[in-house]
User: Fold these one by one.
Assistant:
Number 1:
Amino acid sequence: MAQMSRERLLAETFVEMADTLVDEFDVIELLETLAERCVELFDAAACGLLLADTSGRLRVMAASSEQVRLLELFQLQNDEGPCLEAFTTGQPVVNFNLDEATSQWPRFSAAARDVGYASVQALPMRLRDQVIGALNLFHAKPVESSSDDIAVAQALADVATIGLLQIRTRRREAALAEQLQVALNSRVIIEQAKGVVAERRGVEPADAFELLRSHARRNGLLLSNYARSVVDGRSEAPDVEAPGEQPAKRERRRKGATGQPRDSSLTPE
Amino acid sequence: MSGSGGEVNPLSREPGQPSTPQLRDLLSSLLASRDGATAAGHYRGLCRAAAAALPVRGVSLSLIVSPDSTTLLASSDATSERVADLQFTLGEGPTRDAFHSGAPVLEPDLDSASLTRWPGFTPAALDLGIRTVFAFPLQVGAIRVGVLCLDNDRPGLLTARELADVNVLVDACVVSVLNHLGDESTQAGWADEVGGYMSVVHQATGMIMVQLATTAERALLRLRGHAFAKNLSVAVVAAEVVARRLSFVNWE
C-alpha cells in the first residue's frame, strides 16, 4: 500500500477515535488502534496505553507490540516511571532522555535502556480534572519532539479519553470505574482467545490477535464479544488468512474509519 | 480514579491493597487454608466478615451452576439470603444482571429506581427494608465463577475507595472459589497474577484449553497446579507454555 501522508493518517486517526461517539465500539480495539497509530505518527519504537483500575493500579490495555520485555516496562511503572508520574500529576512527561536519567526512576530507566530505548514520553489520559490512565511512547533514539507533536499526541489521548468516558453517559448509571473493570476484563478475554487461536492455528499470540480482529471486523462483531465466543466454544477460531490478504484488510479498515458502515451486511466484502 | 471531589485518591495507599486492617485480615483468612471447614461454612464466615468490613448491611455469594444461572452459596444473614432467594424466584435482579453482562450492577436507591428494570424484585426488596444493591461478577476474562452481592438499608453509592476495596475482595473471592473448585491446597500468592493483567497467564490458559480440550477454568487450574507442584510462579510457567517449551498435551 502506498505510504499515506502524515496529515492524512492523522486525520483518519481522529476519525477512528471519534467513531466511538456515533456507534457501538469496542474499548480494547479503540486503544489498540490508537497505540498502533501513535507508533506510525510519531515514528516511535513502541507505544502502550495504561488505564488505572479502581484500586489505582495501572494496567496495560493496549500495546503496539507483544514483546514481553516491553510489557514488563509498562508494568514496572506501577512502582516508578513516567506513566505513573503522568497519571498522578495529570501532566505530560516529554522528551525524557533515558541516558541522562539515571537519577530519576533508576529501575525504570535501566530496564528501558536494556530493551534499547533512548527516550520516553508519557501523556495523561484526562478529561478536565479526571485522569484515567496514560499514553506511553518509546523511541529508539533520543528525540526532541516539537511542542506541536506533543500537542497532537495529547489531543489523540484526549479524544480517546472522551470516547471512554462517553460510555458513562450512554449506558445508564454505570460509573466510569465499573466500565473500566469491564474493559479490564475484556482485555483478559482477548488474551485468553489469543491463546486459543495461537494453539488451534499454530500461530504466535500477536498474529492470533490480528486474526481475531480482522475476523471481527469482517463480520461486524465487537472484538470482545467475538473473543468471548471463541473462548466459550460458541465460535470457531478464525482461519489463517491467505498471504496477500493483509493489505486488503488494512485498506478496508481505513475505509471503515472514513464513515462507511461497519455492519457486515452493509459492507461489500 | 483521581477525581475533583478530593474525597478519594486511590494512590494515597498501596495500589491493589485494601484500605483497612479489618479488610486485610479478611483477605488473608479468605486465602488461607480452611482447616477442614466446609465450603458453605467458610463462605458464610466470609460474607459476615465482608459485611462487617464494608459499609454495607449484608453480603451474599452466588456461584455459577450452569452456563446461564447461579445459586446461592452463602450469605451474611437471613435478609441477604432472602434478597438472593427473591432474585432466584423472580428470575430478575442485580445478581442475574451482573452475571449475564459481566459488568458490576450498582443501584444506589431502589426507592427512586425505575420499576421497569426489576418490576418484581424492586418492590419486594424494599419490603425487606433494602434500599441499595451492588452486584459484582466474579470472573477472569471468559471464566465466570459467580457473583458477590452487597445490600444496604440506606440509599447511597459506594465511594471510590470503598469500590476499590470491594474490587480487591472480588479478586480474592475469584481465586478462593477457583481453589475450591480445583480441590487443591490454597496458594495465596497467585491472586495477583490471576486478578491482575498478566497477558501470558491468560494466553497460556487459552492454549492449555485447546491442548487438554477443556474449559478455561480447568485450564487455569491445571496451569496453577503445575506451577504449585514445581514451586514456580504461575507467570513463569505460563511464559513457558506461550513460548511452546511446555505443553500439557498427552498429560491426561
Number 2:
Amino acid sequence: MNAQVLRLGLVASGMAISISCNTMVASMFALAPASVILIGIVVAGAIMAVVALCYAELFSRYPGSLGIRAFSRAALGDRASLAFSLLYVVLAVAMGGFEGQLCYRVCRAWLAPLPALASVVAVFGTVVWVNVKGLSAPSILQSSCTVLVFLMLVAMGAWYSRGLDVDGLVAELSGASLRSLSAVPTALFLFVGIEWACFDVADTKAFRRDLPRALQLAVVVVAMAYLPLTVALYNRFPADQIARLDLPHLALAADNPWALNATIVTSLLALITSFNVGLGGAARILYALAREGMLPKYFVRVSVPALVPTRAVWFTALSVSVVAACFANPRLFVLAPQVLAVDVCVIYLTTLCCWLRSRGPSRVGIGVQLRIPVVAVALAGALIAAIVIQLVVVEMNLLAQSILLGQAAVIGGCAVRRARAGALAPVLGA
Amino acid sequence: MIQELSAFAESANANRDVQRIVKNWNVDVIVECSGTDESWRLQVRDGRIGSVEHTERHDEPVHAAESVRLVARRDILQGLFSGKLNPVHAATHGALEVYGKMADQTRLDAVALVLWGP
C-alpha cells in the first residue's frame, strides 16, 4: 500500500465517518434487531464497494470536469443529469443541517441552551469565514481528525462490548422480518461520502489503481468503525431506548466524566471538519453548474485572488443554517435518517444505472476499465431499488413521504426550467 | 492555433484581475490537439503568460504537478482560447480533457471567467 492509497483512503473514510452516522446507527434499532443491523452494515458495505468502483471508473472518463454532472449527462441526458447534480447539493445541505443540529446537541451536553447556540453559530461562522477566505484547513488536520474519530468509535465499541451476550445476539436473527430490510438504506448512509475522494485525485494516474484501492480500504475502515459501535449499543441499552438516542456515543460514555469530555471534544472536531468539507463541496457543485449555464449566473462570482465561489458558499451556508433550525423540530429530526437514506439510495442507484449505460471502453478521458462484474452492479442496483421501494411505501409515514415528494418536485422543476431556459443550446457544435 | 494562444496571452497579460489571479503562479499550460501530434506550451511565470511555443507531443497522459494539460479537437481549442466556448461546458460534454492539479485547473478557469465572463 503506497502513500497515495493511504492519503486517498483517509480522505474517503474521513468524508464518510461523521457524528451523524452514530445517530443513523441508533435509528436503525427502530427498524431491525442488532444482529440484522450488523448484517445490514456488511451488505451496505458490499454495495458501496461496487458503487465506489463505478464512481472511480466514471470519474476517470471526464478529467477536469465536475464528474457527477459529466458522467450522468452522458448516460442520462441533460435534464436527468441536472436533477442528479442538484440532488447531491440537497443531500449535502441536508446533511450539513443535520450535523449542525447535532453540533448544538453536543454543545448542550456542556452548556445551557443560549451559550450552546452561540457556540454553534461561532463555530459555523468561523468555518464559513475560513471557506470564503480560501484558507482551507490543512490536510493533516482533516486526516488526524478522521483517525481520532475512528479510534474513538473502535475504542468505545471494544470497551462497551465487554460481557456481550453472543447467544442472545444470534438468537435475535429469528425475529428478523422483511421489515428489517429497511435498515439497509440507513446502513448505506454510513458509507456516504466515500466517493468524494474522486474529487481529490491530483494525479490522474491514481484512477487506475490507487483510487480504487483507497475506496475499498475506506469501505472496510467505515465498516470497522460502525460494527463495534452497533454491538456496544446493543450490549448497553435496550433496543427501544437506543432508537431514541440522538447522540449514542455520548450516551455510551455518560458514566465516565473523562470519557464523556473526550468524546464531546472529538465530536466537535469531527463536526467542524465535516462542515468544512461539506460546505466547500456543495458550493463547488453550485459554482460548476452555474459556470456551465445550468444555474443562475449569480453563483458564478469568484473572489480574486482566493478563487472562492463566495456567493455559492454563502448560499450553501444559509441553506444549511435554515435546515439545521428546521431539525430542531423533534418530528423532523426523527424522520431525517430515513429521508436522507432514501436520497443516498437514489443517488447510488442512479450512479449504477449510469455505469451500466456507459460501460465498455471509452474514448474520453484516461479510459480506465476496472473490470467491475456487470452482475454485481445489476444485483446491487436491484437490491437498492427493492429496499427503497419497501422503505418508502411500507415504512415511511405521510410526512416523510411528503418531504421526499416535495424535494423531487422542486429538483425536477428546477431541472426542467433551467433546461428550457436555453442552457442546453448546442454550444460545441460537435 | 498559435494566433489564438498568442492573443489569449496578450489579453491575459493586459488584464489587472488576471494578473492578480496568476500572481506567484508558475506553471506550464500544455495544449494538445487530439487526433494529431500538434502541441503547444504556454509558460506562466511570476504572474505573466510568457512564451507560446510549439512542443513535442507527450505520450505519457499524465504530467508533472507543475503543468496543466488540455486535450481537445483543434476547433474546440480555438473556441476555448478565443472565448467563444465555455471550458466547463466543454469538459462536461467530454469535448475537453484537463489533466493537472485541481488548484491549477481552478486558476485557469478563473482566468477564462475574468476574460470572457460567465
Number 3:
Amino acid sequence: MRTNAEMPLASSQFIAFEDLLHSVAGDVPDGTPLLCRTAADLAVSLALSGTPRGAQWYPAYLPSGQDCPAGAVEVCDALLDGRIDSGLWNELERLWLRCGALFGSPPLMWWYLMAFGAPDGKPASPAERTDSWVAELDRTEPALLPRRLAELAGLAEPASLVLLPEASAGTGLLGLTVAARYGIPFIVRPTPGDCVELLRQIPDTVHVYTTAGVAEDAVSERAVTVLSGPAPQIPDRVTADFVRVRRPEFGRTHAAVMDHWTGMKSDDREAVLRELEEKLAILGPVAVYCAGNLIDNKTGMALLQQAFTAQPEIWDYAQLVFLTALRIHQLSGIGFTEFNRAELTLCGLHLFVQMKCHTYASHDTPPPSVFEAAQRLVYYRQSAEQSHVRSFFIDGGSWERREFLLPLSAVPVAEVHKRAASLVSQEFGLEPGPAGPDMWDGVIRRLAANGDDPANLFLLLADNLVLDDVLGADYVTITVPRGVKLDAPWTFQHDDVFSYTAVRPRFDSVEHKVRLDELRIRNAICQRMRYNVTCRGKNYSPDRAERMGAQPFQYVDIAYGEDAHHSGHGAVGIRNVCRSAFLVTIPDGREWRGLGDLRINRAMNGQPARFGMQELPWAVAWSWCFKAIAETAYRLGVVLSGQHCRKLTEIPPARSAKAVEMGRGDR
Amino acid sequence: MRTEDKAQGWDAGPLADLAPGALTKVEADGQVFAAWRMGRFIVAVRDSCPHRGGPLSQGQLVDSRLECPWHGATFDLRTGGLLRGPDCPDLQLFVGRADGDRVWLSPLAPPASQDCQGDQEQRSR
C-alpha cells in the first residue's frame, strides 16, 4: 500500500477501512459499527443501513482474522441474536444476488441507487426506480451529477462526494461505505480518465474521496482523500467483463425501447408478439425477476397476452422489461434462460447485450440501441464460432445458464483419433492408417466388406470411453441417426435413431441411489434420446405447426443438479453431465442440428462429481470422432444395424477388453 | 438418541465435537442435524434439504453460506433463508446452547419464509 509520503499531492489524506472502523464512534455517537467479513455482507449491510429499520447500523469491513473491537457487532451475531431482522436481511441478500446475476455482482453505482435512492413516494419497485435513475444520471451534465445524485438520494447540497472508476471493485465498496457513513453522493464513472474529467468540472470547494490513480492524475489542487485498502474482494465471475465494456448510452435506453415498440404498426407489433408467444411456449424453464416479481413461463405468458390488447405506452414496467428481454432473445439468439434468476432492468439488459458483443467480438463501440446491439450479436457470434465452440454451464437446480466460449484449439482432436485408431486396430485387427477423421472411410469399407456391423465402432468406443480416466464417467451415451431418411429428419421414428449407452462395469445402482437396474437404465436413456432426436428433427419440418412444437436445439454444455426437477433423470441417475451436441452433415452437404450428441454422465451428486474445463475439451473431441464415423457411414451409404435403434432385451457384451477383464464380457 | 431435558432442549452431544467454523453432523431428539459453531453461537439445521432431502451436513460451507450437495440449494445459515438454487422453503434454524461441556438444541422462531414455489415444469433434456 502506498503511504502519504509517496503521494505527490499537496493536500491529500488517506482513509482506510481501519479508519472507518475506529473513527465511527466519534463520528456517529449513537450508531453501532456493524462489522462484515465478506464483500456480500458489506454490500447488504450498507443497503440495510439505508433502510429505516437498519439506520442505526454503520457497516465496515473487517478482514477475517481480526478481532471484533469493543462496541462493534459482527453481522453474524446481530442476525442470530435478533438485533437485525433476518427477513429484511434475506430480502436484501437475495436482491444483491439477483442484481448481480448477469454481471457477477451488481455495478456498485446501481446498488447505491437501489439501496439509498429515496423512493419519493412513487410506487415503483427499487429496480424500476434504479433503472430510471441510471438513465437520468447518464443524461445529466457531468458537472451537475453530484447535485442531481444528492437529490435522488435525498441528501443536502453536497460539500463532499465519493468518485471512483468502475474497475475498483473492492475499493468501490470502501467508497460506498464512506458515502453511506457520511451521507454523501457516490459516483462511479467507467474509467479513471472519466473520473479525472469529472473532477475538473466539480467546484474545488467540494471535497472528493477517490482512488490513488485518479488523485494522481487530477490536475487541480483540490482537497482529495485517497481511499486505500484492505478492501473486501468481490468474487470475480464475469465482473471483469462488465467493467471492461464501454458503457452504452443508458440515457437513451428507455426511449429507444419505447420507440421500438411504439414505432411498429399495430399489425407488425401483433405479429412480433405472436412470434414471441410461440417462442415462450417452447422455452426452457423461465425464472426471471421483473420489478421484483418472479416471472415464470406461465406468468410470462400472461404478461405477453395482455400486451396484445394494450398499447406499449400503458404496459407496466414488468411487462415492458419482460417483453423486451424476449425480443432481445429473438433478435440476438441469446438463450433466454441466461437471464434466469436475474433482476431484469432495461439498462441491465442493454449492458448485458453489450457485454455479449464484447465477449464475441471485443468490439468497443456501443451501438445506439439495445436492439441494434442484439442484431449485431448474431454476426459477432457467427464470427466467434469460427474459432470457438459455444458452450454453457447449466445449473439444473436453479435453471441458471451461463455461456462461455471454448477455443477450438483446446479440443484434442488428433489425440482422440489416435486412441480411436488404436482401439479399432486391437478390436477388429484393422490398420486404420493415419489417425484422423479420414481414416473412417477405409475402416467402414473394410468392416462392411467383412460383413461386420459399423455400429460396433460406436459400441467399441463408448465401452472404452466409459472407462476413460479423464472423464471418470458412469454412463456414456452416443446418439446419431441410423442412416435412413437423412434428407427428411422431421419424419424420423424412434427406430431411425441409433442410441447406445455404455455403463461403467460394476456400476452399483443401489450405491448411487438409482432406482432402475442397468438394462432399464440403458433403455430409459436411449429411448429418451431417440425421442429427443425425433422431436428435434421436426425443427426442419415444412409444416410450420410441427416446427413450432419441436424441441429446441442444444449446445455443448456442462450441467449439474440435472435431477433437481426431472423425475426421469432421478430414476436413471442423470446428475452431473457433460454434453456435446454436434451437427450432422448428410451426403448432399446439408447440415442438421439436433440429431447427434455425446453425453457423459456421473450418477453422483455433489461438487466433486461436477464436470469442468478439464473434461469438456476431451468430451467434445470424442463427439467429433463419433460424428466423423457417422458422416462417413452416411456418405458410403452404410446403414447402422437396427439392434440399437430399439429397446434392448438384454445387456450386450462389452466391446472393451478392459471391461471384459472387469466382468462385463461374459454375459 | 440422547437424553432429553425439556427445559434445556435436546441434548446434541459434547461441545468439543463441534469444530469452530465447520459443519458437524449431530443427533438430538432422534433427529439428525447439521450443526455450525460460529463465534459464540451454535446453529443447527435438520440434516435434510427441504428441496429433496439432500444431506446438508455434507454440503459445502463458504463463510455462512451452505450449499446442498445434491442440487445446489444455498442457504444463509445465519437466517435459514434460501439464497439460490431450486425453489424450496427456508431452513428452520435451531439454536445451540453450551451448558458445561454439552450442547443443547432448541428451535428458533422460523425466519420470514419464502413460500415453496414447487417444482416447475420439467425440462426436455
